[in-house]
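anyone seen this seq b4? input:
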Amino acid sequence: MRGLTALLLLMLPLAGPVQAGLVEEGEALFNRGARPGAAAPKVRTAGGQVLPATAMPCAGCHGRDGLGGTAEAGLRPPAVLWSALSRPGAGRPPYDDALLMRAVVQGTAAGGRGLDPVMPRYGLSVEDGRALSAYLRALDGMSAPGVEEGLVRIGLLLPAGPGGEAFARAFEGAIAAAAPEGVFGRRVTVLPASIPDPGALAEEVARLAGAGLLALVSALPVGPGEEVAALAAREGVPLLSVRAGAGAAGRAFALLPGPVEEGAALLRLVPDAGRALIVAGEGASERLLAERIAERFGEIDDAAPEVVPLPALAARAAEASAVLLVAGPEAVGRAASAMRGTGVPLMIPGALGGGAAPRAAAATGRQVLVGFGTPPGGGDGAARQRFAASPAAAAGLTGRLGHAAGEVMVEALRRAGRRLTREGLSAALDAPEPFETGSLPRLRPAGGGRAATGGILLGWVDERGAILPASEPAAMR
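predicted toks r here
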């Protein structure tokens, strides 16, 4: 007992600055059971067996991240990050260095009660104790933004209105169903932000990032989504968008193809694509998308369609082999009026103006070719059962997309492992293994703002909204 008292007294000065060498020694002791070049401490088990600590290092039960291990025999090893130890817990005062060493060596909690016998007793030296305390302090600084003991925070950007609300319900419902007890003991907390005005986007992203986020999910349409990608990259936050955009820097991923891939797939159906026109709407984001479509098509075909502004369409439409309109629904009527009587096929990426295709078909007097990046059908297995039992199943496409995003996020958190970091989550999203979504076919989120074209449905849409699949270039003639 006298030796233990001396050890505890010697531990008291550790409240000051922590030396880097001590942290490295503590890391080895915590994860492998011995400091470099030092003999391994002895550890006594509940059954009285004496072993070297290398056989039972701290990380074996408390996890390499110090966030607590998996429950065994009804007991879950607690988190041992200094932020957890140094604040009051259930029925105990905060730990300090001396109380921590008493717990490790003697098995006595900060409040004086005995720890569960499952917790081994370690015969630490003074040097061992100093190194261990230093490392537990350093572990806090190794945690990723948005990751704390018992929770992980995910930001969610939503369009204003009922559609955004429906997406949020589906997203949060999928997370609650797929991870009712959290992921590795961490409850997934969603911080939603409705964006009524694109001008408020930068402020909202900064606010969410300031609250501490592991990742950001965006249900915004493609135009504002381009700005989200840039803002997320600036903040260093991984981004999972519903649809791919024109391209994104940093850790940006998309569940489904967007207008770039839809547009490139549509152009592949044009027999003389070099005479096709890519007509850009009047917004800067639409011009960017049009240029990206031309670049993307150039990667898979030697033809070079020309990008022209919407006001030039009336004078140029008759000479084109086809017109690809890169603009929102509000511009579809103008384009259709400019093309009436020309006999030139009108094509629309579904992510931009697909909903206005029946109106365009009525205005032009002929069917409109649309690329739909949302694959038909649903998923399989347990994810499919969760979706079928959820309110999202009755919420149409919005419910399907929100549920899929929630399922993918939960599975990505699991694949990223117990030591959650933004880099680890990005790697999980970028891995080749597909995700079961329950509401969509198995998919693999694509990085860099691009998604594969394999799931794009190309179809002729008439004025009633009926869709006739189109898969051959001959369909354009």
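The radius of gyration is 29 Å. The domain at 16-140 is CATH 1.10.760 (Cytochrome Bc1 Complex; Chain D, domain 2). kinda curious what u guys think
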